[in-house]
Each structure stands twice: as C-alpha cells, then as structure tokens.
Amino acid sequence: MHLIAVVLAGVAGWLWFGPTPASARLLGLLPSPTAKWRLSRSWYRQARPTKQAAAWRAASIELCQGIVAELTAGRTPGDALSRAISSIDAPDPAALKPVAVVAHDGGDVAAALLRAAPPAGGEGLARLAACWQISVTVGGGLASLVERVGTSLREMEAHRQDVSAQLAGPRATARLLAGLPALGLLMAAGLGMEPLPFLFGTPAGFACLLTGLALDATGLWWTNRLVLKAEAAGS
Question: Which of 28-32, 133-137, 155-159 has the lowest mean pLDDT?
C-alpha cells in the first residue's frame, strides 16, 4: 500500500510539473512505450518553437534598438545594420550573417531580412524589411521608421505577456484537475480502502475507470484548447 501511495504521489507531481495536462493524460492512456516516446517528442517539438519564437521577437526588438542607436551616431544604414546584428544575441546567429553581408555590400537588405525571418517569431524582421524597402523607395527617414517598428514590437510583446499572465490561472486549474484522480486514489488508500482492486478487478470498477479517464481526458483537452485559442486571439 505504501508503494501504491508513492507511485500515485509521483504521478501527481509529474502531472503538476511535467508537460501540458492534455499531453500528460494522453501519455498515460497510450499502451505502447514507443507511442509514448513519440508523443513526448511531439510535445517537445511544439514547446521548442514557442521558445524560439519568443527569442526571435526579443532579438528583433534589440536589433531595432541597435539600428536606431547606430544611425543616431552617424553610421550609414548598411553599416548600422551590420553593427547591430553583431551586437545582439540572436537565437540563430547564422541566419543573420547573410543579412550582415548583404548590408555591408550594399545589396537588397529587405529581401535578405525576409529570407532570414523564421516562420514563428519573424514578424519583427518582416516589419524591419518593410521599413528598409520604404526608406529605399520613398526616401523616408530610416531611423524614425525603425524606431516606430521597435515601439510597436515592444507594445505587442507586453500585450502578449499580459495575456500569458492572465492565462496562468486557467493553466494552473487544469493541472490541478489533472492531479485530482491520483489524489483521490491516494486518499482512498490512506483511509484503508482498496480502490485499485475494485477498479481493475471488477467489471463495474473497470467501467468506472474507463469512464473517468475518458471524462478527465476530454475536460483537459477542452481546457487546453480554450487556453490555446485565447493565446492565439491575444497574440
């Protein structure tokens, strides 16, 4: 019984600190270790682009600030961009090296920025490319354009962080709900009951187990879906 209590406590802790609730419950339902490994990799691939996108957005803001500072110091646009790229901490420095080369050689900087912009988190580089194109075509002040882009990117990032902070409560509630079944089994075992023999040893218990898992997984999936939709609407 003590072993069961330890296992259930470990499951509850993993659900609290581990991946998203939907992924955690789905991992528990999969029968094959290979399938669980594939789902874990899938969850990791989904989480990693989110961090990469945030890093690219931060680098874009830093790049705009660096360009404005260099232009204010009297640098030419190409030199300002090259110096700003060398001074920022980009998630993938190799992606911005061709941009620095094109800026130094006087090539098509706007096209190079668009090529370097990643699918997720590359909005800042795309806007910077539009600024560069406008400055070249119309002759507008590049420093003021880049400064406006940097300001808008900072406002968007602040709004995104505010939305994420507001969604922290629903996320915590979903994780708490994910751990309630394990907590209930732990409490029943502590009171001297035998929930596991009932759930796995009788037809009625097994039916209750399947129904509870299905309802729990559906609730977690729905909560996670609502949170993701709210994040997408606030981005």
Answer: 28-32
3-state secondary structure of 220: helix
3-state secondary structure of 226: helix
pLDDT for 42-87, tens place per residue? Answer: 444 444 567 888 899 999 999 999 999 999 999 999 999 999 999 9
- Smallest CA-to-CA distance from 144 within 74, 79, 68, 73 is with 68
Task: Find how far residue 53's CA is from the centre of its chain.
Answer: 7
Q: Distance between CA atoms of 116 and 107, rounded to whole angstroms?
A: 15
Question: Would you state the pLDDT for residue 124?
Answer: 92
Sequence-distant (≥ 6) Cβ neighbours of residue 200 within 8 angstroms: 206, 209
